[in-house]
Design a protein that fits this description.
single chain; 62% helix
């Protein structure tokens, strides 16, 4: 019987490596306190809807100012012309006849036999035109549409009256006043319907003022 083979001594077990120690945690830096007066930001609340933004008042345009000045010129010129026609129309006709070489007696006889109502009619025409346009000035300040339409019609009448006054040629004053009223009517016809005036009229109507 064979002797047992000698058992080799077992290799000693390697000892487990010691676990590495965890690195020490670094101390956290000091936390800075929040600055006083500044609360933490919060989310902006949603707006339920856009509120109606009030439009600033719109200043009267230059075109409307020119229209008002023109209307005042027409009113004053025609009122004065109407009074001159009514008060001194017949005398001016006699003076005009005398300037043509007709004697004063013959001129008076011709005037007595002629229909002098045309002088009165023209005087009343000038006065009515001046009064209507003068009363329109208040409504024109708001650029009311109806007032602008009436001004347009009576501005045409002012231009016609200017032509009549120039054609009559009774006196330099009548012709100057007629020319002033005619030019005022022509300017008013243009400026009363220009885009700035129309925009201002639309704004006044929309704002209800």
């Amino acid at each position: 019987m064979n002797p047992q083979n000698p058992q080799y001594p077992q290799n000693p077990q390697y000892q487990q490596n010691p676990q590495y120690q965890q690195n020490p945690q670094y101390p956290q830096g000091p936390q800075y306190p929040q600055q006083p007066g500044y609360p933490p930001q919060q989310g902006y609340p949603q707006q339920p809807g856009h509120a109606a933004v009030a439009q600033p008042p719109l200043a009267a345009p230059t075109t409307l100012t020119i229209t008002l000045i023109s209307a005042i010129v027409i009113a004053v010129a025609n009122l004065v012309n109407g009074v001159v026609y009514l008060m001194a129309g017949e005398d001016l006709l006699i003076e005009q006849a005398k300037a043509l070489g007709v004697s004063e007696e013959l001129a008076e006889l011709a005037l007595a036999s002629a229909d002098t109502s045309i002088v009165t009619t023209r005087g009343l025409m000038f006065i009515i035109n001046g009064l209507v346009i003068g009363l329109l000035v208040v409504a024109l300040r708001s650029a009311k549409t109806w007032a602008r339409v009436v001004l347009t019609l009576f501005s045409l009448g002012a231009i016609l009256g200017a032509l009549i006054a120039l054609a009559d040629g009774l006196s330099p004053l009548i012709m100057i006043l007629g020319l002033a009223a005619g030019l005022g009517g022509l300017v008013a016809l243009i400026t009363v319907w220009l885009p700035p005036t129309n925009r201002y009229a639309a704004w006044r109507k929309q704002s209800g003022s």
